[in-house]
C-alpha cells in the first residue's frame, strides 16, 4: 500500500521532471519524508503534486528532497537546489525551526520561498521579506481565533497545557492575546512527553470549565487517549494540529466531541474544496488533512501566478503573487501586506462519519483574520 | 494540594515505574550478563506495540494482541541476536553502540515501510476502559491499575526465575564468569540468545501495554530508552532488583516532580514563571536523582563493583 503510493509519487515526479521546458518553472521542495513527523511532509507533497497534475501544465519541474526534520540537512539541501539544480522557487518546509534556518538564505539569494506550512512569527513581522510568501498561517492565528471563540461561547475559566518550547509558548500566548476569561492553571510539559497522568490528575482537581491544549503529533494522541479513560469530564479545545486527519485515526473515539480551530476543513462548502477532497481520496486512498490542503493551495497559487507572469521576471511574478485572488480550497485566497493569508478560521468538532473519525465545522471562530505581527513588517 | 491528588499522583508514579521496569529489566539483563549495550532495545518495544496494534485491528482481541506482541518481539530479538549481536560480544562498547544504533535506523525505516508514516490505533480493552472508584473518592483509570498489577506480577515472576530456577542459576553464573560456565558444559550461545529473547519480549510486552494509552508510531521507543538507561544506572547494572527499585524511583520522582515543583515555586513567585521554571526543573529531576545516587553509590544502588 505505502510502497505503491511511494512508487506512484516517484513516477509522477519523474514525469514532471522529463517534461520540463526551458521557460517553465523549476520548484525545489524540501520537506520531511522520514523520521518523526513524516506524515506532515508526505501530505504537503501529495497535495502539491495533485494540484500540479490537475493543472495540466507540463512546464513545472519539481525536485523533492527529504530534510529528515533536521535543520542542518535542510540548509544543505536548499544550497544544492539553488546552486546546482537552479530552482526558481523553494517550498515544502514543515517545521518553524527549520524554516528559520532556511528561508532567510533562500530569499537573500533572490529566490522565492512559498511556505505550505510553517509560519514563525519572526518571518511574519520584523523578519518579513518581499520574496517570502505563506499560504498556510502564522503560528498564532488558530489560537487567537480559539480565544475569540471562547469569549463568545461561555468559556469562563480554562486550564492551559502545552510543551515547554518556543512554539508551545507561542500558541498559548496567541490564545491569551484574545481570551478575556480567567485562567485556572497553565502547565508546560516536557517536549515529547508521552505520559500525561500527572497533568490529567491536575486537570481533574482544577477549578476550570474547559481544557485548552496544544500538543502536536504523538503527544496529542497520548494525551487524548489517556484523558478519555481518566474519568475527567471537562470539555477539550485546541488548534487543529492536534486533531488533524492523520492523527484522529490513532486517537479513535476518544477524540469525539473535541472542539478545534482550523482555517480548512473537508466540509468547507465550495466547488474547489469538494473536488479536492474527492480527488485526493481517489488518488491516494485516504482523507486529506490540513497539510494536504495547504500543499494543494500552494500548487494552485503557483499555477495562478504562472498564468499572469514569467518567473524569470522576478518583480512581475512577485506582483502576480501579491495580487492573487485564486479560488482555493478555503474560498477566495488573499494575502495581507506581510504576505500571510487573510482568512476565516472555523471552529470544528470531532465527529464520527460511519466508521471514520473526522471533523465537522460548527461555526466561525474569527472572520477575515489577520495575524498580529504584520504591523512590524516593513518591506 | 489535596491528599486525593497526591495519592493519585503516587499511583501514577507507580504505574510509570512498573512500565519502566519492564523496559529496563531486559536492558540490565543483557548489559549485565553479556556486557552488551543495546541501543536498539527501544526498537523492540516499538515492534511489540506495532504487532499488538495490527493484531488488535485484525482480530479485535486485546489478549491476542498481547500474545502477538510477546511473540513478535521475542522473534525479532532472536533474529537480531543471531544475525548481528552475536558478533559484538567480544568487541568494545563503541562498536556495540554503533551497530545497535544502526539497528534503530533499520527498525524505524522498516516499520515505516511496512506500516506507513501515520500512527496506528490501539485501544484499551473495553472491560478496562473506564475509571475505578477507589475508597476516598478517587476515580482512577482501571487500565492503569491493571498495568500496576501486571508489572508487579512480572517482576515477581522474573525474580523467581533468576533466583530459584536452573536457568536463572546459569544466567547468574554467566554474569560472573562466562568462560567457566562454558567449560562446565552449558551452551553459552543458546543461553545468550534465550536471555536476549527474554529481554526483547519484556520490552515488546511493555510497548503493547503502553501503546494502548499512548501513540503507536515510529520512534516511540527512543524517549523510553533514555529513561530505561537512567533507571539501570540508578539501580546498578545487571541487577533485576536494582532495575525494579530504580524504575519505581524514576517513575515517582518524575511524576511527583511535575506536579509538586511548579506548586513549590508558586509559593514565592508569580504563577506564570513558577510553572515555567518548575516545569523546566521537573524535566531535569530524574537526572538530578541519578547524579545524587551516583555521588554516594558510584555503581548504583544494587550494583556490584
Strand and helix order of chain A: HEHEHEHEHEHEHEHEHEHEHHHEEEEE
Tally of DSSP helical segments of chain A: 13
Low-confidence stretches of chain A: 17-22
Helix content of chain A: 40-55%
Mean pLDDT of chain B: 90
Shape of chain B: globular
Amino-to-carboxy terminus distance of chain B: 42 Å
Q: Count of DSSP helices of chain B? A: 11
Largest interface: A-B, 44 and 56 residues
Low-confidence stretches of chain B: none
- In the sheet with the most strands of chain B, the strands line up as 1-2
Assess the beta-strand content of chain B as a share of residues. under 5%
Strand content of chain A: 15-25%
Rg measurement of chain A, Å: 20 Å
Biggest beta-sheet profile of chain A: 8 strands, mixed
**Biggest beta sheet attributes of chain B:** 2 strands, antiparallel
How confident overall, as mean pLDDT of chain A?
90
Range of helix content of chain B: over 70%
Q: Could you tell me the number of beta strands of chain B?
A: 2
The general outline of chain A is globular
Order of helices and strands of chain B: HHHHEEHHHHHHH
List the helices and strands and how they pair.
The complex is a heterodimer of chains A (379) and B (305).
Chain A (H helix, E strand, L loop, with lengths): L1 H17 L6 E7 L6 H18 L4 E7 L4 H13 L5 E3 L4 H13 L3 E4 L5 H4 L7 E3 L6 H12 L4 E7 L2 H13 L3 E8 L7 H9 L4 E4 L4 H11 L7 E4 L5 H7 L7 E4 L8 H14 L5 H19 L5 H9 L4 E2 L2 E2 L1 E2 L5 E13 L2 E14 L10
Parallel strand pairs in A: 1-2, 1-3, 3-4, 4-5, 6-7, 6-8, 8-9, 9-10
Antiparallel strand pairs in A: 10-14, 11-12, 13-14, 14-15
Helix pairs in contact in A: 2-12, 3-4, 6-7, 9-10, 12-13
Chain B lengths: L2 H32 L6 H19 L2 H22 L9 H23 L15 E4 L3 E4 H23 L1 H11 L1 H6 L4 H24 L9 H15 L4 H27 L4 H26 L9
Antiparallel strand pairs in B: 1-2
